[in-house]
Design brief:
Layout lengths: L4 E2 L2 E2 H4 L14 H10 L2 H5 L18 H19 L3 H10 L8 H11 L8 H12 L17 H6 L29 H8 L9 H24 L13 H13 L5 H12 L12 H30 L15 H22 L3 H19 L1 H4 L2 H9 L3 H14 L2 H16 L2
Antiparallel strand pairs: 1-2
Length: about 425
């Protein structure tokens, strides 16, 4: 029965892990998926979670939520151009950062360390866990939580890394990538979701989401850095700066793009008529900067859409019909922008005392909640803790709790639970 087409998506793609009766004649299954994510508490919490700079840095800086909305806009436009269902891609884009803990990748690294003995922590695997288990929406008749119970197509599109830890592509180091999309104890729903999918391959909707994410944060992180005075694009003309930038890129993102290609990308970006070398903070200056970001987003998205169409033709490109094609020059230019943010914003912060403090807060909270679960865990996570069969399951429940916190609530919890206990 699952081979019947429904607008190029099969009934198989519309299937939910827990079968539900149709609830609306006016909305498609995929529109319902998107609506469930929009109304989720996990999405709301992204408003108080770090993107690159913390939410409290100033009134301009992006949070995980504003970044997510920007990714969804870029992804939806790409979906229209490629013939994917825009609601499937929109749902994937809105979901892609739901699993991120407080303090961004800094908090993610801390949780990965404390969870090392139970399979680690990965924001993308946590996203799958939220969508299929933790986010309160749907329960089976026997009382089992199945999260938002999205369709197979939307859930698969939300999975950026469709493999378990240690099973991903091998990188330059000869080791599998650290990124993964599912924990071992979520293997059942992962197997259902992947079903007939080629092992390790992402559907085109997931690839669109990933490209939209790359485009959005590469451009917008640079915009935030310029507005906050952390970088002036004119610095790229200083002697030796381009070489330093290329070294930074290779250190952070590997050597998939050669130094020559990166240098050419710096040249092409700097030569663009809308490139803003000097920012004066005025309203006109802000408008020029915004025009630059808009032009770059359009440049990257249009080039990828054209290259994909040139390779796979017209019509609706859905699921495993095609792969997103990103021209090498566009990939190099996106990588340069990511490198600028890494060099002038992220790398300098690695040694800041604040970063060490954030990691300590996350570690302290896991330890405190583990030692006093009945007094610290919120009711849903306390229920998971009590139902766990072993210490690994109990630690995972604690990690789920801490990961759910925002930057603001993590600071408040730490002050209330940890700092108060250390006072004489």
């Amino acid at each position: 029965m699952f081979d019947l087409p429904v607008g190029r998506y099969r009934l198989y793609d519309h299937e939910r892990w827990y079968a539900e009766a149709p609830k609306s004649a006016h909305r498609s299954d995929f529109e319902r998926d998107r609506a469930r994510i929009v109304h989720s508490s996990a999405l709301r919490r992204l408003g108080a979670k770090t993107q690159v700079l913390g939410p409290g840095t100033d009134d301009f800086v992006r949070t995980r939520l504003t970044h997510t909305l920007e990714v969804a806009q870029v992804g939806r436009e790409l979906a229209y151009n490629l013939g994917c269902d825009p609601d499937v891609v929109d749902a994937a884009c809105l979901s892609h950062d739901l699993g991120h803990p407080p303090f961004g990748h800094n908090g993610e690294n801390a949780l990965h360390e404390v969870a090392a003995d139970i399979g680690g922590f990965e924001g993308n695997a946590q996203t799958l866990r939220l969508l299929t288990r933790l986010e309160p929406k749907t329960f089976t008749r026997d009382g089992r939580a199945v999260g938002l119970n999205l369709t197979r197509a939307s859930l698969d599109a939300s999975t950026k890394y469709p493999w378990f830890a240690g099973e991903g592509p091998v990188g330059e180091s000869g080791e599998p990538t650290r990124k993964f999309g599912a924990y071992a104890d979520d293997a059942e729903v992962f197997a259902w979701m992947r079903g007939e999918s080629p092992p390790g391959r992402r559907c085109i909707e997931a690839q669109v989401m990933d490209l939209a994410d790359d485009i959005s944060y590469s451009v917008h992180d640079v915009e935030d850095a310029v507005v906050n005075g952390r970088h002036d694009l004119a610095q790229l003309r200083q002697e030796g700066m381009r070489e330093r930038l290329i070294d930074q890129i290779h250190a952070w993102y590997g050597r998939a793009t050669s130094a020559d290609d990166l240098y050419a990308a710096i040249e092409s970006l700097s030569a663009m008529p809308y490139w803003v070398e000097t920012f004066d903070g005025t309203r006109r200056g802000l408008a020029r900067l915004k025009d630059m970001t808009s032009q770059l987003i359009g440049r990257f998205a249009v080039a990828a859409a054209r290259a994909t169409r040139a390779t796979f033709g017209q019509g609706n490109l859905v699921r495993y019909d095609a792969d997103v094609v990103v021209p090498d020059q566009v990939l190099a230019e996106i990588t340069v922008l990511k490198g600028i943010a890494a060099m002038f914003v992220m790398a300098p912060r690695e040694d800041e005392p604040l970063y060490g403090r954030q990691r300590q807060i996350v570690t302290d909270l896991v330890q405190e909640c583990s030692s006093r679960p009945e007094a610290t865990l919120e009711p849903p996570f306390l229920a998971d803790y009590r139902e766990a069969d072993d210490d690994a399951g109990r630690l995972r429940a604690v990690v789920d709790q801490v990961a759910s916190l925002t930057d603001v609530s993590a600071l408040e919890w730490h002050a209330r639970l940890c700092e108060s206990n250390s006072r004489p």
